[in-house]
Amino acid sequence: MAGYDIIGDVHGSAFTLEAMLGELGYEFNPWTGAYGHETRQAVFVGDLIDRGPSQLRTLEVVKAMADAGSARVIMGNHEFNAIAYAAHDPADPGRPLRAHSPKNRTQHEAFLSQLTGDQKRHYLAWFRSLPLWLELDGIRVVHACWHDPSIGVLRRILGGDRFTSVAQLVEATRKGSALYRAVEVVLKGPELDLGSYRAPPFRDKDGHLRTSARIRWWNAGAERLSDLIEIHRGAKGEDGGEYPGLPDVPLVGDDRAYAYTDPVPVFYGHYWREGVPHEVEDWTAMTACVDFSAVRGGTLVAYRWDGERQIDPGHYHPHGPGLVRTTPSG
């Protein structure tokens, strides 16, 4: 059984990534042009691109490792967005699959500005080949949410774990389609309409007003709205002031439908954690988040899996000045 180092969202932070690979015991092989380890394999949870200062170098490092067999890589929502931003509907060639709106361009600016046309085409082709999830020797890896029904839809429509045609990409960007809904869950995470509980909207980290919030699918024991809903620390209210908070009410209906209860550890990124990993918020017996905001003053994090059947918070590996606490939060 291989040892895996599951690495969180890099977002163009190549210098930090290479430093962490060295800390983890990976060495650069000039013959292969890739970092490698004698007994371990890196696993990247997606979101290699956007935001950070070293887009091209990040892609060079990670793809070289994947080509050499020293790493595995899954698609994140930012890779999917990049594909859709560059692709057009064959039935409407003037329409990109992801709108070139100011909001989308701002989110994607680092990738667009730091790579040349040929470089972008090269890496976009690689993005299209990436799986949307991995099932390895005793673990699962997904970018945002492991949800068996959604993965079942993807298997059925895609014929496997990745996109193989432009038609599939068109369908995956068509709001309301079964493929669109499944991709949204797996790559971006399920959300709950706050209005269904008369909860106030909030402004996200980019200042956009949100009337829906992410679901803590990893918290299978959620009983109240505050247990289930993910709203980042320091969130602002609709008027830009302090967020008034969620109503203290029990969950109703099937709002627990996304809860992960399988006896297989699953690793994921996407959620812009801050500080140190806390029990329930960041890890449970069977789930572990490895995204700790590498490009927003946080820490690039890896989880070193060595065959354990339950998450051991002592296996988190930090990089940078902020030490990661590896004991339960109490």
What is the structure about, briefly put?
It is built from nine helices and 20 strands. The chain is α+β, with helices and mostly antiparallel strands and 330 residues long.
Account of the 3D structure:
Helix content is 28%, strand content 18%. The chain has 330 residues and is of the alpha+beta class. It folds into two domains: 3-176 and 263-317, Metallo-dependent phosphatases (Purple Acid Phosphatase, chain A, domain 2); 191-257, no CATH class. A five-stranded mixed beta sheet has the order 5-4-1-19-20. A hairpin with a 4-residue loop joins β8 and β9 (140-142). It is globular. The two termini are 33 Å apart.
Structural features:
alpha+beta, Purple Acid Phosphatase, chain A, domain 2, 5-stranded mixed sheet, 4-stranded mixed sheet, globular, disordered C terminus
